[in-house]
Amino acid sequence: MTDEVEILAQTYISEKALGKASENDAYHIALSSVNRLDCLISWNFKHIVNFDKIKMFNSINMRLGYPLIDIRSPLEFLKNETPTTIVL
Q1: In the chain, domain spans
Q2: How far apart are CA 72 and CA 4, in angstroms?
Q3: Which of 33, 45, 46, 60 gets the highest tally of CB atoms within 10 A of its CB?
Q4: How far apart are CA 33 and CA 36, in angstroms?
Q5: Helices H, strands E: what count in the chain?
Q6: In degrees rounded to 5, what are phi and psi of residue 7?
């Protein structure tokens, strides 16, 4: 893990986008942002795939010169599946 990722993850925490207990989630998002991924896919609806949180992550990213990160649920990427065949 790079210093850049560490700093960004800690910024998410210090600016209350995530709590200290969600430090692993902060690193997950920071790694994705620093490496300029087009999209982060996660099942974590509480801390990551969360509209209000995504706005906070992107606000921090923009201010610090990182691109906006698109965060989605895996359900959005399933093709030719019907709701009856998806088990959560």
Answers
A1: 3-74
A2: 24
A3: 33
A4: 5
A5: 3, 2
A6: -65, -45
